Amino acid sequence: MNYYSFSRGLYCLKLGALVLLSGTTFAQSKKPFTYQDMLMMDRIGGLSVDPSGHYAVFNVRATDMEANKGVTTLWLKDLTKPAVQEVKLAVSDGGANSAQWSPDGKTLFFLSSRGAGETTQLWRTDATGAAATQVTRQPLDIQAYRITPDGKGLVFAMAVFPECKGNEIACTVRKMDARKAEKSTGELYTKLFIRHWDTWNDGMRNHLFFMPLDGNEAPIPLMNGFDGDVPSKPWGDEGDFSISPDSKTVYFSAREAGKTEPWSTNFDVYSVPVTGGAITNLTESNKAWDAAPRMSPDGKTLAYKAMKRPGFEADRFWIQLRDASGKVTTVAGDWDRSVDEMKWSADGKSLYVVAGDVGRTRLFKVDVRTGAVTPMSKDGRIDAFVETPKGFVFMKSALNSPSQLYAARPKAKLIDVDATNLTSVNANLKDMEFGAFEQFNFKGWNDEAVYGYVIKPAGYVEGKKYPVAFLIHGGPQGSFGDSWSYRWNPESYAGQGYAVVMIDFHGSTGYGQEFTDAISTHWGDRPLEDLQKGWAYALKTYPFLDGDRAAALGASYGGFMVNWIAGVWRDAFKCLVSHNGVFDTRAMGYSTEELWFTDWENDGDVFHHPEKYDEFNPLLHAKDWSVPMLVIHSDRDYRIPLSQGIGVFTACQANNIDSEFLRFPDENHWVLKPQNSMQWHRTVFGWLEKHIGGGAK
Length: 697
Description:
Oligomer: single chain
Number of strands: 40
Mean pLDDT: 94
Helix content: 10-25%
């Protein structure tokens, strides 16, 4: 498990097990962990370790509730002195993130928007972090970057107009200035996307550039005229591109947009000389998703991950190896897990990969010659990892712990067993009580094993019953497992006196691709059966769950399921919470942006097969709704548009159902601003208190 220090970790691990087994309360003096605590926590991420394994740098994002924003700074940990506390680098006071060490370990690069123009540029400092020097002075924001392995150059991404061939930066600046001078506000579109996630399409594309670090040469465009984005939108980063060990070639993953972008998952892996020139498509034969190109240390083998089915965003990512002749082979093809992050081992004999695995997110080693897969972590979620000359350094979180930095003990078979905690971020959590949790399984749809988690409320007393928050995850190809979240955090419910039940129904990830596939075209039957059977199993197995005081809550697909439950499973819950959920599947099919998703999940588009969208359409059952419902939706959610939430609330009001509608005009599919998140939690817990109360009986 992931705790705040090795010594505390052993204590908490034993404590959690004893609480689960005996029900005895050992931590009466501790304060229950609440959503207010969660929102004010410091969040760490962005791990970078210097080549010698001496120093680790990471981001810490603090919450400025008054200013309604997060503030990110850089912190340095001397890995040779585990007992010495990490220090904040002075250079980060002006705002800093995305730190990377130079290949020689003498320079630390980072992104910051300080300075004239307030565009995001690359800066550098040394291990002391005392003074910063500006490296780039581009008129556009730098969005992601990598330093070449020889330390002499920089590959970075900026948003430009792709039609500005040959002079992308200057031409883009002129076009942007011309737009600002326009008095009219109309936007003319000739193709989709017109909007994506939370942003209207402005015609710009994220493109890569190269420039030497020791001169004043103008950046060299590496994607001149390419109709696609690197990093990909909306969540891509430097993981979408890499540089060969000899610093001569850039590899990137991108999708050519054309007029089919909203229907296409056909990302390909490309190569281009670092000095510019012809772009070569290395995976043109695969019409599905190819991603994360990583060249081996000897420069002979390109590893990447690939899906097999075009148009399906939740297909398994397989490991592919491409040699110098262009021959492609699959590694560990019989290992039924989808690869997330992937890195070469230092000796080039293995790939280290992160993958979901039965409610956990673990690190594995894959032998590239034999395909043998070896687990390298036990539980929780591996959030980042670096192999150093002195062993593994990694970040890990768990259901009851935010991410922290650890060092694995030498030659550990499982890096998170007896690991040494390296950070004191959120040290005050040692004085807070978390709900003890355990994983369970039962026979769900088709008599197949389905897994879930149950969490006891903070302050649990044996023999008492507690109201229950039944949390339903989104995706739908996702998971509520042994990991930390700052949005749907089960421990924040436990801290308010609620027990929590979460089911990884058919469609969830980490249980094999066939299990994940089972939900497509079956949104309302197979997962519902799992939820019903899981709920029945939990009530029978855990007597502290008060089935008469229970609420179902979910977002995205979870919101769809709440809307579906409102019509077809009305006797199970006293109230419901639907956040940004699908209400009318037909309208979703023609108003969402990533149309490959709705087309795949309904086995056809809504224009030619509207009847398929009605099989599990909550709208058609709204006349039967009767359970009180809190509805939450945001204006800038272009994935599940605002009209879906308005429809849910309108249906409740038309049926004279006790209901409330919380709208965020400045949020997207998620609620990210601190003040808005505070209001979200205050409203949700107020709704639960009203309908199922709080605390034991």
